[in-house]
Amino acid sequence: MDTAFVFPGMGPSRFPEVGRFMVGNPIARRLLRRADEVLGYSVVDRFADADTDYDEAAQVAFLVNCLALAEWAQQHLDEVPAVCTGASFGQKTVAGYTGALSFEDTVLLTARLARVLDDYFRTEHTDIVTQSFVRVPDDRLEPVLAELTARGEWYEFACHLDAGFHMVNLRQSAVDWFVTRLRSVGGLPLYAMRPPMHSSLFTGLHATVRDEILPEFTFADPAVPIVSDQTGELLTTADQVRTLVLDGFVRPVRWPDAVATLRDRSVGKVLVVGQDAMFGRVECVVRSFEVVAVNPRLAMQPRRQPVPAGR
Amino acid sequence: MTDPQFEEILRGHLPFLPADEPLTPDTNLTDHGLDSLGIVDLLTALEGQYGVAFVDDALTRETFETVGSLWSVLDGLRPAAV
User: Fold this and answer.
1) What long-range pairs does A243-247 form, CB within 8 A, spacing at least 24?
2) From A17, A184, A246, B80, which residue has the greatest number of CB atoms within 10 Å?
3) In which domain of life is the source organism classified (chain B) (predicted)?
4) Chain A residues within 8 A of B58 when measuring between CB atoms
5) Which residues of chain B make contact with A187, given a CB cutoff of 8 A?
6) Contact B36 A187 (CB under 8 A)
């Protein structure tokens, strides 16, 4: 059975949770030095001072931590993936890990995209949020969404995570009604995220990234095949990876499709590489694979030194 | 205040709670490792154990703040003893 590396989407991540890893792990320190050179500022210092969850430095820190943990897993767990995937933000990480982008370019692209997103959502779609919720199977969700439409509201799926577990884009003004209605059918609303993500409405953002950002970056064929989190397809060329990163702005994540492809590829073990509270923990993943959470906590645990031969 | 099954189920969902640390009504659940997907698992376990269904206001964030707030909601969902 093969091993897959899964690079998670980014959740709220604060410096106190990962700071010890960033300053104490030699791989992370080395990669952070390279990131600092690319960006011209200290990622650690700026991340420590960040006042929002998705600050540019927080995004770069998340990226670098994931890539450092992947290298750590290869060294200390002796794991090499036969296939990789990345969910949402993890699309950038997997591009960097597989060599579709150089480390320096992955860092620079992450920072550039963070700035573009900030600028775009400061003036565009200011009333849209991404609401996540769980415990709402389709037969209960469909009537709720039908009522939402009947109220004259727009919605669109941003992310399918698992059976009964989704993210939906909708107007902020409809959120109170929506979450109350979800609770009435036993659903558990989680977070209303701003900026929103993955919507066909964000064509302006898509065009800016396509025309002004991506032409500055050269993609290569990935060294390891990548499973698309949007379609479940296997990606093996530079252009496919570039399209994956670009289309992530306007296409929903279909995580169960990516998981199904991993299953079809005879993957038996999944290493979820990075801080994750979601993508590696949903039922469709934990039911299908042996899951190892490769996070800063694991990497900072004291490890037994190998005993020299002959003793 | 609570019952042994509740405490046993809850402890199983609080990965950062030392085994020898007592649960009190003020014990904060998030601080002891209960996150979003942990809440989902916990709900399933409590619903199975007590034969109740968490809906409506029982599913707000306040329910899962402390041991006391969760027990209070759960106790309110249980059929009254006769």
Assistant:
1) A244/A91, A244/A95, A245/A91, A245/A92, A245/A95, A245/A109, A245/A214, A246/A206, A246/A209, A246/A210, A246/A214, A247/A206
2) A246
3) Bacteria
4) 183
5) 59
6) no
Give the one of A135, A183, A191 whose C-beta lies nearest to B56's C-beta: A183
Tell me the sheet residues that pair with A290: A269
pLDDT at A275 over 90: yes
> Containing H/E element for A73?
helix A56-76
Query: Residue A267 region, left (φ>0) first, then alpha (ψ -120 to 50), else beta?
Result: beta
Q: Which domains does chain B have, with CATH numbers?
A: 4-16+25-77 (1.10.1200.10)
Q: How many CB atoms neighbour CB B34 within 10 A?
A: 22
Range of the domain at A176: 128-193
Provide the CATH number for the domain around residue A52: 3.40.366.10
What is the token pair recorded at A109?
């692209």
Chain-chain contact of B59 with A282 (C-beta, under 8 angstroms) = no
Q: What is the pLDDT of residues B6-36, one digit of tens each?
A: 999 999 999 999 989 999 999 999 999 999 9
Stated pTM of the model: 0.93
The torsion angle over the Cα atoms of residues A168, A296, A247 and A41, rounded to 10 degrees, is 120
Q: Residues A175, A181, A183, CA angle at the centre, nearest 5°?
A: 105
In a domain, A234, yes or no: yes
Q: Does A185 touch chain B (CB under 8 A)?
A: yes
Q: Flag if A183 and B35 touch (Cβ within 8 Å).
A: no
Q: How far apart are CA A156 and CA B24, in angstroms?
A: 43
Instruction: Indicate whether A311 belongs to any domain.
Output: no
Give the total number of structural domains in chain A.
2
Residue the block writes with tokens 């990669």: A31
Q: How far is A98 from chain B (nearest CA, A)?
A: 29
Instruction: Quote the percentage of chain A above a pLDDT of 90.
Output: 91
Look at the block and give the residue holding tokens 């931590």.
A65
Q: CA A61 to CA A71: how far, in whole Å?
A: 15
Q: Centre a 10 Å sphere on the Cβ of residue A48 and count the other Cβ atoms it contains.
A: 17
Contact call for A190 and B36, based on CB within 8 A: yes
* pLDDT at residue A307 greater than cutoff 60: no
